[in-house]
Write a structure and sequence with these properties.
The protein is an all-alpha fold and 136 residues long. It has one domain. Helices cover 85% and strands 0% of the residues. It is built from five helices and no strands. The protein has helices at residues 2-31, 35-70, 75-102, 110-116, 119-133. The radius of gyration is 17 Å and the shape is elongated. The protein starts with a helix and ends with a helix.
């Protein structure tokens, strides 16, 4: 089970790296005016999302494996799973935003994406605290 835990941590860190960077690309895309820059950002956004989505699946799958293997329970776990669900929703919402950018239908400013970029940081902090401290 320690191997599963190690890979789970690797997958989670990789998933979060993608979720930290993709909205930052959205910030740059919302500010871009040059066609070549816009095309490059579209390419980068698409490649990153396609790369990080299977990693998210591996993080979730290994997390379920750990959950079933250890038989962990408690209020902290329910709270953590709720936050992980929010993270999955955030991930797929990023995919929706990516499609809007790809179709040149973005209506939001770079300021929105700067704030949007903070959500995974808050989720990560809360999840790590729940898993480490197990407050309830």
């Amino acid at each position: 089970m320690l191997w599963v835990k190690a890979f789970h941590i690797i997958f989670v860190v990789s998933w979060f790296a993608g979720l930290f960077y993709l909205p930052r690309l959205f910030v740059n895309h919302a500010m871009a005016t040059e066609p070549a820059e816009i095309a490059r950002l579209k390419l980068m956004e698409g490649k990153l999302y396609r790369f990080v989505t299977p990693i998210a699946g591996l993080a979730l799958g290994s997390g379920i494996w750990l959950w079933l293997g250890y038989g962990i329970g408690g209020g902290w776990l329910h709270a953590k799973l709720g936050l992980v669900l929010l993270l999955v929703v955030y991930h797929y919402y990023c995919g929706r935003l990516l499609k809007q950018f790809a179709a040149d239908r973005n209506t939001r400013s770079h300021v929105f994406y700067r704030w949007f970029n903070e959500a995974p940081v808050l989720l990560l902090a809360a999840i790590v605290i729940l898993v480490t401290v197990k407050p309830f």
